[in-house]
Amino acid sequence: MAVGNKNLLGIVRDLSSPSPEAREEASERICDWVHSFDRREVRVIATLLSSTVVIEGDRDCRESELNALSELTASGLVEAEDLVALRDLRRDLLTESDAEHYDYLASEYF
Q1: Cα–Cα distance between 99 and 93 in angstroms, integer?
Q2: pLDDT under 70 in the chain at which residues?
Q3: For a tag site, which of 35, 46, 58, 103 has the least CB within 10 Å?
Q4: CA quadruple 30, 24, 100, 52: dihedral positive or negative?
Q5: Between vectors from CA 102 to CA 22 and to CA 89, what angle results, nearest 5°?
Q6: CB-count burial class (<10 Å; 0-12, 13-18, 19+) for 15
């Protein structure tokens, strides 16, 4: 199953939007569609999300993005190389909730 290029590009556009609302909505959409992505779509989104999380300035968005990444990993389609950018995330600057997501991802993929 796949969501298709049009929907994938919409998610990519919204994750890279200057609008925190668009980025958060994209993360929520990822969670809603997590079982509809094929391997290529999961890997594209995981790679983009891991880069986005590192530079995210909005705490609510960061939490949504980390949650979406955690949801994507449950698909079993995410590879360690898709999350390499997360290594640049400073754990000491994360909220408790964000740190829990980060710790899970780090323990599984680093």
Answers
A1: 9
A2: none
A3: 35
A4: positive
A5: 75
A6: buried
d(CA 54, CA 3): 26
pLDDT of 33-65, one tens digit each? 999 999 999 999 999 999 999 999 999 999 999
Q: Tokens for 2?
A: 């796949």
Report the C-alpha gap between 86 and 106 in whole angstroms. Answer: 8
Enter the tokens of residue 38: 């094929």
With b for 16 or more beta-carbon neighbours within 10 A and e for fewer, the 37-62 pattern comes to beeebbbbbbbbbbbbbeebeeeebb
